[in-house]
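Morning run. Coffee first, then this:
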Amino acid sequence: MGLKENEGNKTRFMWLVPSSLFFFVVVPSLTLNAARYIERIIGLPDYLQTPTVYAGLPLLAYGGYYMVESIRGLLVEGGGVPLGDLVPDEQSNALLKEGVYSRTRNPMLFGYLVTLVGLGAIWGSPAAAFAFPPAFLVIWTVWIKGKEEPALEERFGESYREYRERTPFLLPRCSRSGLKVPILISQ
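And here it is:
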């Protein structure tokens, strides 16, 4: 391993801690607290009950898997960091098309949305489970369509265009030859 490659690995590892804290602690905590605040303002009662906790656990695990695998893929196979558009020197140098990236072009966003629904169920927060995920979806879709996808097309050209054509935008398909999702969601 060359000196430059070793330095790149160290830099990516240094991004692992803050990005993990951001994606797995800061954003969920802020979201859940904001949801609780909104629920108090509009007068919703506390819904923390055992059945919702149990319903949220599988969602938390499933969404967490997509988030962890997408971050791992970016760091290991892609040689970059999450949200590499914000740090151009740390963008992935490979177009990821395998694993969770073969099922959806945005596994981190998908995983986060599912995780947020699960956290909302566990926390007993209807706002976190049902109001915030669509809001996050709109915000991140604007970012992805306006900034990330054009940058990926510029960096990876025809390879990215082919990948974009055959891989759904958000909702994962079961397998490469599996279910097709509606064009509204997949493109």
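The mean pLDDT is 82. Good start to the day.
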